[in-house]
């Protein structure tokens, strides 16, 4: 009898947890991702805002499994799945047979039918997205410095963030701090303290996943940092010159999109039903409907809890799903009874506002202020992979606390170089 | 009387030293660079070879002069100089008047009349160059892992470095260590220990700027790491498939160019004589011929020493020239006698081979082995800017020593992403 082959697509939180959970299970594992690295997305906004370097929150996937000879890592992109033949085809032409398939391919930004906004309002999902936002933000200050027309200068000094979930709130807080505290002494022609940071939310309040009192606290903390918060106002247009909110046009040369996500193509590959956001509607054991050998987890799956609410698209949920799937596979290959249906345990919601405020919503128990900030910081350092990254991130945060100076303020990539360079 | 205005073009080692030396001189300074950061080029090869992150060896220029209100930093690219009108024009259309101009615009790669080789054999001058080389090198291993044709696989596992100066030697040493010690356990289909690293030098020996005995030692150290050293053999062709050395074609999918440099356009802007490498032939006080208010320093200047040899294009030489120019300017504005002609003091030549050997040539006094490595390491940490970077680089080196694991093994930039990503 040949070894059971598990193919895992996607090296995010969910996919890695499946591979981790299969250690010693006696199965062969192939892990495929189109990037060579696992990314710690919860801190990606800190790369975009010049606090952390790319290598501090990303790890080469194949390094993580160097000591697991039964795990093969492939850099590749999935083209399609043939669930009848039980094969996965890659864009390179390679075809892999699987006994069990796990799709953990995540999600990307959604522009709600306005994909034409993407070039002017980039989202934040990859390391390149983060360095793109960083470059645009830093270049806006540089261009303001040499701009003589006051209206054009103000447009460079206006940063709009669309969407007030955790990412939008975190970006707005750090950009405001950067403009108001870190940069003022470095420019001669502009006063960066006059920078406008506008956080735009279509819903009635910031951080809608949190309790109302925490949303209210977060909004006050943002306003204290100088962020203008607009709630209940959908964005109706984004251009290179600015953003239209309801009827109002805000001249703004830098727009960041933090408003919505669209699941990856898992449902389409499988030919199974998806919700409006493209998420595969999975069974109680996280398999795709009618395909007991195919699991779909993380941001690309829609899992409904007993109370009728969906499991949120956050890292702890993806990890719990990955761990559960590993258990199901272990039970199957060893002929033991399968575990019961997947149960999501919500450990709490966390968000930070700048470098001294945070909120934590544990449900019954709520926390805000600097104690919440410390818990947030320690939790994130704990969940990083490896001593080196934990140390490097902790050191950067400590340094920024002590000096106020961000370390990763580099404008890179071709756009800034001379044509022949 | 209006303030004396010094315009410095280029935020490399030379340009920064001019600005540093003008502290308290009562002059207005404008520092222009087409990048927003100063780059510590001597360690750039460590970014290319996954040891360091970009932000560890680069600093935002305007941050360095935050506390010098008389210094204005501009992100911009010079289009031309009008030495009669005493103006500098930027590509953006801005025109600046100067009383004194310092051109410290550096050098770029030279392909000796074969610019068509550049796309297949990138050089190493900017952060983008470093991440490009890093991406190509890491992708070559990834592609080898999924390549079924043995000859094609071998071509992916052959890395050619053209030019055996310090950069070429350093790159070859680290790539060999990476392939032979760091990566073997992470791949399932290839044996990265069979990687070929070929170092090609047209001249008779590696590191020609060093004493012969040190060159011989370096070559032995390279060969011990598994590097194939070809000397006395010029490259006659570079293509995407490999490099031709004399009559021999070496199939090699990754080529790095470390063979020659070409000075920037300073001489052309000024309309003054240049040598074959494009370097402005300057006067004994580092001014351009016939233009006493224009200084040219660093890699873009040719300075002949009393013994007839040119000052080498290295960081300490640029810094000495920058310091000298600041002194001349201070003397002029305060009406004191100008200092005598510029004298270059050669402090020594340093190079490393992998992570345990180095050579230092102080002239009469020569050093090799691990003591040289430690001196090299401490010297480089000392010359980094600021506590944060010193600490971060030292920590990375310590970590690699203890674990053998490189931290910055990330493939980034668009080439690796899916089309719609």
Automatic annotation (TrEMBL), chains A, B:
Catalytic activity annotation: a quinone + NADH + H(+) = a quinol + NAD(+)
Cross-referenced InterPro entries: FAD/NAD-bd_sf, FAD/NAD-binding_dom, NDH-2, NDH2-like_C
Pfam family, one: Pyr_redox_2
Record-level Gene Ontology MF annotations: oxidoreductase activity
E.C. code: 1.6.5.9
All copies of domain External alternative NADH-ubiquinone oxidoreductase-like C-terminal, residue ranges: 346-404
Transmembrane stretches, start-end: 367-385
Domain of life of the native organism: Bacteria
Keywords of the record: FAD, Flavoprotein, Membrane, NAD, Oxidoreductase, Transit peptide, Transmembrane, Transmembrane helix
PANTHER family: EXTERNAL NADH-UBIQUINONE OXIDOREDUCTASE 1, MITOCHONDRIAL-RELATED, NADH DEHYDROGENASE
Protein name according to UniProt: NADH:ubiquinone reductase (non-electrogenic)
Source organism per UniProt: Rhizobium viscosum
Lineage: Bacteria, Pseudomonadati, Pseudomonadota, Alphaproteobacteria, Hyphomicrobiales
């Amino acid at each position: 009898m040949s070894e059971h082959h598990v193919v895992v697509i996607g090296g995010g939180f969910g996919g890695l947890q499946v591979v981790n959970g299969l250690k010693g299970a006696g199965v062969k594992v192939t892990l495929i991702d189109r990037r060579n690295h696992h990314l710690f997305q919860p801190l990606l906004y800190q790369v975009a805002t010049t606090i952390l370097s790319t290598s501090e929150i990303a790890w080469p996937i194949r390094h993580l499994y160097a000591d697991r000879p039964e795990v093969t890592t492939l850099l590749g992109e999935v083209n399609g799945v043939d669930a009848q033949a039980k094969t996965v085809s890659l864009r390179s032409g390679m075809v892999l047979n699987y006994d069990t398939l796990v799709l953990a391919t995540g999600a990307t930004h959604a522009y709600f039918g306005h994909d034409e906004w993407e070039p002017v309002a980039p989202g934040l999902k990859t390391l390149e997205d983060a360095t793109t936002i960083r470059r645009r933000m830093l270049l806006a200050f540089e261009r303001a410095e040499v701009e003589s027309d006051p209206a054009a200068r103000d447009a460079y000094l206006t940063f709009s963030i669309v969407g007030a979930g955790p990412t939008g709130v975190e970006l707005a807080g750090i950009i405001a701090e950067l403009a108001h505290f870190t940069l003022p002494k470095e420019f001669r022609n502009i006063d960066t303290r006059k920078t406008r940071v506008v956080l735009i939310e279509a819903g009635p309040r910031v951080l809608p996943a949190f309790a109302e009192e925490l949303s209210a606290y977060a909004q006050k903390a943002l306003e204290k940092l100088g962020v203008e918060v607009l709630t209940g106002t959908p964005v109706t247009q984004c251009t290179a010159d600015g953003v239209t909110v309801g009827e109002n046009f805000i001249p703004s040369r830098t727009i960041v999109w933090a408003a919505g996500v669209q699941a990856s193509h898992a449902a389409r590959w499988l030919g199974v039903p998806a919700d409006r956001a493209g998420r595969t509607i999975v069974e109680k054991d996280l398999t795709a409907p009618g395909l007991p050998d195919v699991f779909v987890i993380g941001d690309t799956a829609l899992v409904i809890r007993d109370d009728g609410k969906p499991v949120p698209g956050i890292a702890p949920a993806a990890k719990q799903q990955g761990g559960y799937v590993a258990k199901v596979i272990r039970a199957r290959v060893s002929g033991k009874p399968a575990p019961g249906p997947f149960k999501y345990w919500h450990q709490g919601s966390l968000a930070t506002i700048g470098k001294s405020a945070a909120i934590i919503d544990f449900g019954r128990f709520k926390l805000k202020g600097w104690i919440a900030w410390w818990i947030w910081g320690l939790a994130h350092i704990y969940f990083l992979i490896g001593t080196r990254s934990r140390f490097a991130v902790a050191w950067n945060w400590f340094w920024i606390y002590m000096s106020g100076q961000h370390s990763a303020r580099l404008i890179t990539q071709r756009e800034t170089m001379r044509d022949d360079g």
